[in-house]
């Protein structure tokens, strides 16, 4: 691009911009620069004066800088008197918040790729180890998709691709996962039949969009696959618990802040959600309280 600009002697460029740019790029994006390292003002097609900066003032040339490794910015020629500025800097706090969200997404994508490699390594070995690795992969993938959905991020399948992991491998993982799921469902069924310890009493309701909800006396980490339970808290609030296709809790939505300072600041009345996830050792944890998204509000409008 620079050589092309030199050939026609267009030395003023415009750098594109996007939300969530990495720190060194963030300060450079959405501005005009002089490739000859001058500074001053140019006029656009409407006679508006726009400031331009020396290109040497950017982070260009650094691996994590402008046009460096994995940079998504582009430069475009700006013709004084003919062009209009199309890109502008983003608010610093807004960009920083989006950058942190994207970095978390990248972390979750790395976990999915690592799980795929683990499954490839174990597919012709110990069946039990492969089954556990397959369950882990499915959980990591679902965690990534849920995170993207809750944070308005695009789930990109190509960012979790691994060389050698194709349809055949994916089919074996799904088969192993389904076997594990069936075994878990049978185990839960036996526990309920023998002990009666599920906590579920004989009372049902539905949420605002008509999905069935089981009223329970206590919240369990494991429940019926793809179900929703509801429990009244000691202070009179309501917790709704969501379970995935393996019967493990994936989310809890509360219609109040439980008297906790952080949670009371969320929503209109302290309503909030916690996402549940597995760590690398398979242990289940719940994340920090967060705001409900539009879909969650619509689905639980009857208790909010």
Question: Describe it for me?
Answer:
This protein is an alpha+beta fold. The protein has seven helices and twelve strands. The strands form two sheets. It has a seven-stranded mixed beta sheet with strand order 6-7-8-9-10-11-12. A five-stranded mixed beta sheet has the order 3-4-2-1-5, with no helix packed on it. Helix 3 (92-122) packs antiparallel against helix 4 (127-150) and helix 4 (127-150) packs across helix 5. It is flat and about 70 Å long.
**What is the strand arrangement across the widest sheet?**
6-7-8-9-10-11-12
Number of alpha- plus pi-helical segments: 7
Radius of gyration: 26 Å
Oligomer: single chain
The strand count comes to: 12
What is the domain total for the residues? 3
> Could you say which structural class the secondary elements and strand pairing correspond to?
alpha+beta
Q: Outline the low-pLDDT stretches.
A: 4-8, 190-202
Distance between the termini: 55 Å
Q: What is the residue-mean pLDDT, rounded to a whole number?
A: 87
Quick structural summary:
The protein is of the alpha+beta class and about 300 residues long. The chain has helices at about 1-10, 25, 90-120, 125-150, 165-195, 260-265, 295-300; strands spanning about 10-15, 30-35, 40-45, 50-55, 75, 200-205, 210-215, 230, 240-245, 250-255, 270-280, 285.
């Amino acid at each position: 691009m620079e050589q092309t600009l030199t050939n026609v002697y267009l030395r003023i460029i415009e750098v594109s911009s996007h939300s969530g740019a990495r720190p060194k790029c963030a300060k450079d994006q959405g501005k005009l620069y002089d490739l000859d390292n001058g500074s001053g003002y140019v006029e656009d097609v409407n006679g508006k004066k726009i400031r331009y900066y020396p290109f040497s003032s950017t982070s260009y040339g650094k691996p994590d800088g402008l046009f460096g490794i994995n940079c998504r910015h582009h430069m475009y020629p700006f013709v004084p008197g003919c062009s209009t500025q199309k890109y502008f800097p983003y608010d610093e706090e807004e960009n920083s918040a989006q950058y942190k969200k994207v970095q978390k997404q990248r972390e979750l994508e790395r976990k999915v790729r690592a799980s795929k490699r683990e499954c490839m390594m174990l597919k012709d070995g110990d069946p039990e180890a492969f089954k556990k690795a397959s369950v882990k992969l499915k959980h990591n993938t679902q965690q990534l998709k849920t995170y993207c959905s809750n944070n308005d991020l695009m789930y990109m399948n190509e960012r979790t691709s691994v060389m050698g992991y194709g349809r055949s491998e994916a089919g074996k993982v799904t088969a192993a996962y389904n076997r594990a799921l069936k075994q878990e469902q049978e185990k839960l069924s036996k526990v309920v039949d023998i002990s009666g310890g599920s906590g579920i009493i004989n009372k049902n309701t539905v949420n605002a969009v008509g999905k069935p909800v089981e009223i329970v006396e206590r919240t369990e980490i494991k429940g019926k696959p793809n179900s929703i339970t509801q429990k009244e808290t000691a202070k009179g609030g309501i917790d709704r618990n969501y379970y995935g296709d393996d019967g493990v809790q994936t989310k809890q939505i509360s219609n109040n802040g439980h008297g906790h300072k952080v949670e009371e600041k969320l929503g209109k009345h302290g309503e909030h959600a916690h996402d549940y996830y597995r760590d690398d050792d398979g242990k289940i944890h719940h994340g920090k309280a967060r705001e409900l998204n539009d879909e969650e509000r619509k689905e639980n409008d009857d208790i909010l």
